[in-house]
Amino acid sequence: MRALIYVAILWLAGCGSSSPVNPGSPILDIEVQIEGLREAVEVDSVFWDARTWIPTASGQFEISGRYALTFRNRTDQPLELRYDLRFLDRDSFLIDVFNPFNLPLRLEPHQAGREGGDYFIRADEPRALDELQTMLVHVVAQPAP
């Protein structure tokens, strides 16, 4: 029965959409969580959007969008950063996690580094498409080896 509902939704939606995923909520939230050397790194200029969604062969929905952010090393020592992007719904439940490539990121003393690109996440329920609300930037900062 659930598969029939998904098929009906996909058929009505035209098997994907190039319109924004979350038109009912124009304000997308941003949260930052830093572990390790919390005072050593600053995250600013964070941007994200959710551009399109398509159904997958496994019955899930793939949501794509763009993100951009800037990391700043506030110390006199080199830092090594790892980060992921956690996408949450309106009730702060996790929808999916995006792990960027080319990590760890190394920042020299007082250096800033701009990161960004496309992200792809998957959701099991079509309601996640409307409830996508928050991107949590989870950062782990440590001294560079």
Question: Can you walk me through this structure?
Answer:
This protein is mainly β and 145 residues long. It has a single domain (2-143), classed as Immunoglobulin-like (Sandwich). Helix content is 12%, strand content 54%. The longest helix is centred in the N-terminal third of the chain and has 12 residues, at 2-13. The model is unreliable at 1-25 (pLDDT under 50).
Mean pLDDT: 84
Question: Could you tell me the strand content as a percent range?
Answer: over 45%
* Separate helix tally: 2
The general outline is elongated
CATH class type: Mainly Beta
Number-wise, the strands total 8
Percent in helix:
10-25%
What distance separates the N and C termini? Answer: 54 Å
Structural class of the helices, strands and pairings?
A: mainly beta
- CATH hierarchy: architecture: Sandwich
Q: Low-confidence segments, ≥5 residues, pLDDT <50?
A: 1-25
Query: Major β-sheet, in short?
Result: 5 strands, mixed
How large is the radius of gyration? 17 Å
**What string gives the helices and strands in order?**
HEEEEEEEHE
The domain tally reads: 1
- At CATH level 3, the topology is Immunoglobulin-like
